[in-house]
């Protein structure tokens, strides 16, 4: 699983060490050599788990899809973004954080409460 590109659709086999990586940064993080560039690339689709080759000299719009399952693997990369969130207690235990204070609850009466109307007892 690539931690640099969240929506990687294929793995790419590096021509230098013959190992599979999701992106060039994953190769740089784990290997001590530079990635060898080539125009003949081998891909492994993450949807159908089948491998295929593409010649990048003759790459066209129709080559953006896996030849086995038509998975569109050339898409805009989603990279992890830092975000700030509010930490709180588990809402299943304490729902005060999500309770709408604008809505007034009706007062719960018991049989021992006097509503002011004694004729209703009985």
From TrEMBL:
One of its GO terms (molecular function) is zinc ion binding. It holds the Pfam family zf-CHY. The keyword Lipid metabolism does not apply. Residues 1-71 form the CHY-type domain. This is CHY-type domain-containing protein. One of its GO terms (biological process) is protein import into mitochondrial intermembrane space. PROSITE patterns: ZF_CHY. InterPro entries: Mito_Tim_assembly_helper, Znf_CHY, Znf_CHY_sf. It comes from Salinomyces thailandicus. Keywords: Metal-binding, Zinc, Zinc-finger.
């Amino acid at each position: 699983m690539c931690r640099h590109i969240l929506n990687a659709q294929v793995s790419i086999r590096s021509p230098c060490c013959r190992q599979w990586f999701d992106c060039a940064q994953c190769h740089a993080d784990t290997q001590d050599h530079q990635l060898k560039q080539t125009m003949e690339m081998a891909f492994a689709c993450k949807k159908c788990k089948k491998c295929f080759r593409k010649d990048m000299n003759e790459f066209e719009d129709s080559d953006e899809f896996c030849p086995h399952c038509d998975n569109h693997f050339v898409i805009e990369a989603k990279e992890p973004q830092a975000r700030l969130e509010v930490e709180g207690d588990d809402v299943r235990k304490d729902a005060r954080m999500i309770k709408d204070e604008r809505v007034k609850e009706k007062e719960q009466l018991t049989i021992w409460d006097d509503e002011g109307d004694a004729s209703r007892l009985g």
